[in-house]
Amino acid sequence: MPFTKTADLNIFYERHGEGDGPPVLFIRGTGADGTRWMPQVEAYRSEVPCVIFDNRGAGRTDTTPSPYSVEQMAADTIALMDSLEIPAAHISGSSLGGAIGLELAIHAPERVLTLQLHSSWLATDGFSAYSLGLLKKILLAGGTEFYYEATLPLLFSPSFMMDNFDGLMQILAHMQANPASEEGLLGQIEANLTHDLRAEAAAVAVPTLITVGDLDYILPVSCSNDLHDAIAGSELVVFPGCGHLVTMESPTEFNRVTLDWLRPRL
To answer: What pLDDT is stored for residue 7 in this prediction?
Structure first.
């Protein structure tokens, strides 16, 4: 299995697709392993190389003691890129992965060709502090298996859960079969709770696409509006009827929108 060794952990990754151009580097969110990007990889891989990986504390990448920070996890991403000899990539991040991507675009802009921020946010404050803090309470109350089950209503729209219940249970089974450790999940949640790039986001100078579901209960549309207002020239797409995990709830439409945006920038 492909691992790369950094200063303090082994990072699990996969490469998909053909060609030797700059890849899309997909960065997943809290408690999620890289395989949750496979609906996107299958759509993208014929047009652009793709790299997915497991963040610190998730999937098959090592768990280190919590807490983590967005800056630390961005450094992990750069270490992976260095190991794979990727000078720069198209960055696509979901939720916490978007926070990591934003950190890269601000503090390592030479490594970022384009930036996609999906269901993400600018800084933890007010409602985002409440909603992300609720994730911590769920984890501490019930452990990791309960966490993945109890957070489903926060991640998907009611209509998706009702109309696609068998698919929802398959998603849950996948989450529970590829979990973060409790320590790793707690570390990632702490990274969420300390995220704040309000003072620096205006420095982003790469083409940026921001997307969000209009029924995102964890990081509502207003969070993406904040990103859009802060990043000059960014584009914002709101997916109607979708929750936090648009990538899994409406992959066909998500892939169409994001690939149409990315294609002329490859």
So the answer is: 81
Closest CA to 191 of 76, 106, 78, 91: 76
Alpha-carbon distance of 109 to 118, in angstroms, equals 19
Longest pairwise C-alpha distance within the chain: 47
Residue 94 and residue 96: Cα distance in Å, rounded? Answer: 6
Question: What proportion of the chain, given as a percentage, has pLDDT over 90?
Answer: 95
Nearest Cα neighbor of 193 from 62, 30, 8 is 30
Least confident of 13-22, 66-75, 76-85, 210-219: 13-22
Which residue from 45, 52, 13, 51 is spatially nearest to 29, judged by alpha carbons? 52
Closest CA to 98 of 205, 251, 199, 244: 244
Range of the domain at 246: 3-265
- In sequence order, the 6+-apart residues with CB closer than 8 A to the CB of 243 are 154, 155, 156, 157, 160, 213, 215, 216, 217, 249
Contacts with 92 (C-beta within 8 Å, 6 or more apart), sequence order: 24, 25, 26, 27, 40, 101, 116, 118, 258
| Tokens standing for residue 32 | 């999620």
Cα angle, residue 118 at apex, residues 220 and 234 outer, rounded to 5°: 95
CATH number at residue 229: 3.40.50.1820
Where residue 188 falls among pLDDT bands split at 50, 70, 90? very high
Q: What are phi and psi of 211, to 5 degrees?
A: -130, 155
